[in-house]
Amino acid sequence: MNDERQNPAGVPEVEEEHIGFFPSWNWLYVSVVVYTILIIGLLYLLTVYLDYSAP
Amino acid sequence: MSALDWLVFTIYFGAVVAFAYFQSRKNVGVEGYFLANRRLPWGAIGLSVMATQASAITFIGTTGQAYDQGMEFIQVYLPQPLVMVLLCVLFVPFFYRARVYTAYEYLENRFDAKTRSLTSLLFLLSRGMAAGIVMYAPAVVLSVIMGWDETITILIMGTVTVLYTMMGGITAVIWTDVLQMLMMFAGIVAALLVLFGTLPSEVGIGDVVYLGGIQQMWTSIDLSWDPSNTYTLWSGLIGGFFLALAYFGCDQSQVQRYLTASSLKQSRLSLIFNAFVKVPMQFAILAIGVLLFVFYHFERPPLIFNPAETAQVENSSQAPEFARLEEEHQEAHDLRKEATLSLLAARRNGENLQTWRQGIQQYDQQLSDLRSEAKQLVEEVRGASSNDVNYVFPSYLVKYVPAGLLGLMIAVIFAAAMSSLDSELTALSSATVVDFYRRYFRKKASPEHYLRVSRITTLCWGVIASGFALYAGQLGSLIEAVNRVGSYFYGSLLGVFLLAFLVKRANGNGAFLGLLAGMLAVFVVSEISNISYLYYNVVGALVVVVVGTLLSIPEAKRSGV
User: Fold this and answer.
1) How far is CA B549 from CA B91, B501, B507, B536, in A?
2) Interface contact flag, B218 A46, Cβ < 8 Å
3) Which ipTM was obtained for this model?
């Protein structure tokens, strides 16, 4: 398992490092999930509110 | 094309070749040739991942599809951001830390040589032919629309791409992909602006949205549960998730990209970049199709956009029937145009729109029915299915786009094709050299020897792909068969990798037999049910994981795992 935690140069990978303004990778991943939900919601709103087919 | 178009087109080719040559000087040895010495930044890799996925047919086919069916195709892309997260968490760390050249090489480290060889062989067979189709499909469209010779188009596209890929390896490929992807972005924006520009001056954005909405063209989410329908939210989220995971996680043409990163962090960031950008980009491409639909309310669209198919029907015994359809099409279009202009005037004056709206819907339906009838005629005459959706956007470009921009848009179609082809070639070459030549034939040789063999292999795959593209028109059902076989193994391949990452006790025999069982299961399901092809990947992956795990248990018990 030790190999799994180190990069090829032998330097330990830091999972909790800052990624831009995200405090850690987990925050970035959660933001992607939230983004996906928002996109689906937005497309659903387009589907409902831009449907002018009904009389 | 005008002189200005040719100038723009020539500048594109010159820039790609010069850029590839400049970048290729940075390569050192086989690791440089296949993995850019693992030193590329996330931005370049991210754009290359995107360019590899977006082929020319993605660009011209999906706009045509949106013209016919609206935005519903977007649902297939919705799980991609989630897939990118799973790749970052599960797949990328395993590949990156294993220091492998190919995804399949990892499977030998984890399982055994036979599992690696079978998965790599399946990849080579499928992708080798797909590389030919990447060239053939846009070449056919351009030959029909522009009157260019199909053979010459394929040879130019193939020769330039093979040359820069052969000389520059992955470094040249990724940096030219960056250039080509930026061109595609520019092309999408230009297409949207030009489409607005060619609408009547009194038609505003609000009118465009309204006219699209009358025919439900903005409908992007279908919540119904129907496994036989590819374009529902559930098919997209479930089937599309497994398809995208298999493509980005197990296909060497994508895995190779993120193995070139200078660190695990850069590798992950390239995928996160795709998570944020891919869906909006696909939305913009589909919006071009909806705008085309609105545009053709004011200009009469061709009944069939492919002029070659139209000529075929007009010179057949079905010509009188086709002429009748053309006449009715003209009448219906004139009536729809009149109703549309009246509706827009009433909208501006705040009057009741119901009568005009119903009129437009009625004529829309009539035009759609006439187009379906015309497609049926084409299919009867040709004895093969019509692929008219691929001609909708190019047909518009040739007729309505101003000089200079046409050259840019044709260059964008070339860029889309070449940026996919170059990635296929480096992936095919790396799998051939690393998984077979170095594994079975020359285990010890100098770096110069492997570099020479890698270049020759790239050239060979380029020749095979070009040859396949040149004869693809005569292969017909074989292409369909190749696509079908591809859909059988893609999900199963994913199952093998999931088994490797998630099931500790899984072993080589379990993985190998599980892979065979997965492909068999997909074949059976495709024969006895009518579920969407997106679900084949779910079936394949799950069967491999279950069968692979069960078959691994006895051996695991014996060895005490």
Assistant:
1) 19, 12, 8, 20
2) yes
3) 0.88
